[in-house]
Design brief:
There is one protein chain. The strands form two sheets. Strands 1-4-5 form a three-stranded mixed β-sheet. Strands 2-3 form a two-stranded antiparallel sheet. With 99 residues, the chain is mainly beta. The chain contains one helix and five strands; from the N terminus they run βαββββ. The chain is extended. It has one domain. The chain is 10% helix and 26% strand. The protein binds zinc ion. Zinc ion binds next to α1.
């Protein structure tokens, strides 16, 4: 039997700068009121849920962006590293991220 060479392509991980083990917002408790439809997710999220949604919207794998150079030529660029931007209000929530 012929053995097929199976070389797994090396998985490239996204490097995330600014990760924190215990950001302050994790101390918040979920205060979503599920007894009242008007206060229920996704109509309204409590601060705790809002912070987690922000965290979960952050990419975890390398991704591609289209960049346009000065000559107007479009080119795909793979982003392998991002940096987290956190709020400075004491909550340390993920305000955004950039590359
Ligand atoms: Zn909540």
């Amino acid at each position: 039997m012929m053995k097929l060479k199976s070389e797994k392509p090396k998985e490239i991980k996204l490097k995330i700068n600014g990760l924190m083990d215990n950001p302050n917002y994790e101390k918040l408790k979920c205060k979503c009121d599920t007894t009242d439809i008007e206060k229920m997710h996704p109509l309204k999220n409590c601060l705790s849920c809002y912070c987690n949604i922000a965290l979960n919207s952050m990419p975890r794998k390398p991704f591609q962006v289209i960049v346009i150079d000065r000559k107007g030529k479009k080119e795909a660029r793979t982003i392998n590293e991002i940096t987290i931007d956190r709020t400075d209000d004491g909550l340390q929530m993920v305000r955004g991220w950039y590359y």
